[in-house]
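Section 5.1 Outputs to date
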Amino acid sequence: MQPLENLIEIQNYLPHRAPMLMVDYIVEFNENEVVTIFEIKNNNLFVDNSVFTEIGLIENAAQTCSSIVAKSYFIDDNHNEKKDVSVVGFISGIKKLQVHSLPIVGNTIQTKAVLISRFDADEYKICSMKCTTYFETLLLFEAELNLFIQKTN
């Protein structure tokens, strides 16, 4: 994994907060791709017997993916944070999903999402993303997710 410089707080791009936050930082970010990292801790909701479960990997992927599309709700064109924004988002479909291995407590996973397609309406956004998750060089997870994100205020 590359040196951890210029990390972006994921909270700037998502409504999630502890204990449902499954991403620590954005490492790389542009309009079509995002790379995040997440340290698996023992007190995580999706840890069972020191193993980060499949649903944890799916939630990590969804949060990684949604940061690209949800960005416009939380950050304005001048890169300033918008205040009092409320959104709801969910996985509207999983086209493909493969879990190759599960990480354990203490592992830091890296997840990369690439935008396949996107539709923006005034009050909601729909996207399709391809996502891969690694622990070091070991491929853990691959998926193609559809997400729906809607502004609620």
